[in-house]
Amino acid sequence: MIKVIALDLDGTLLTDDKKVTPENKKAIQLAKEQGVKIVLCTGRPLMSIYHLLEELELLGDDDFSINYNGGIIQKTKSQEILFKQGHSRDDMQYCYEEAYKVGLPLVMIDLERAYETTYPEGRPSIYPGLPHPIEFITKNPSEFEESHVFYKAVLCIEESLLDEGIRQLPEAFFEKFNCMKSRTFLLEVVPKEVSKGTGLTHLAEILGITVEEIAACGDEENDLSMLTTVGFPVAMGNGSPEVKEVAKFITKTNEESGVAHAIYHILEQNKREREGVK
After folding, report:
1. pTM attached to this predicted model
2. What is the pLDDT of residues 90-107, one digit of tens each?
3. What domain range includes position 44?
4. b/e map of 255-265 (b: 16 or more CB within 10 Å)?
5. How many structural domains comprise the chain?
6. In this structure, what is the dihedral angle of CA atoms 119, 122, 123, 124, given to the nearest 10 degrees?
7. Do residues 73 and 94 share a domain?
8. 217 falls in which pLDDT band (50, 70, 90)?
9. At residue 219, does pLDDT exceed 90?
10. 207 and 70, same structural domain?
11. Which residues are catalytically annotated?
């Protein structure tokens, strides 16, 4: 029986113009009415998805979100942090130095704001130009107290330059961090032990359920960890081949309310299980 459905945002719940379709809203409400918890699972901080939580009525006392690709689990209403794991200042100094050497611009993010570091000449980050309800200031890792904690770093630049830089990063960089592309031009860098999959594992422990009782919908590389963790992985019709390969169910695209199609399928499965029908 599926008790939780975890939803990625971009390319999954959201259309290409960043909207939630009426059909997706309707399906989410139906799932809630049937006792299935809906959890947004994203690389974004809570403040960046608050408008979606309001729109989807996911601000109850028992509603949760997984943010920073699994780095933080929060109650959405009180914003209480139930789990967190972040980067140290020294981690970010290393990340900054290695990225700078290969011409990649680094942006660091903590609970309150994003920090633009000194960029390689002629290679500014395009991350601040994306829609964010978050404050950006310019500050390098060395300017922070040693105890400061960051929850994500991003390398965001034109795809060809990003891919070129990634190829030049030392192997030790990828041994130290968990790195994943959430878009073709955006590499997200989180602590090695952090992923959407580990986030859902921690959430299952908090809720007193197993990961087998969780379904997840995703479309991109940064969703693979949660799809290979849960009991019922769903790939979007617009998902990457790697995502589709690990899925038990391939739904419609994000433009076709694929999340709603998946939710209806899951609720029907739950109904059949309750009735003892195989």
Report:
1. 0.91
2. 999 999 999 999 999 999
3. 4-84+194-274
4. ebbbbbbbbbe
5. 2
6. 60
7. no
8. very high
9. yes
10. yes
11. 8
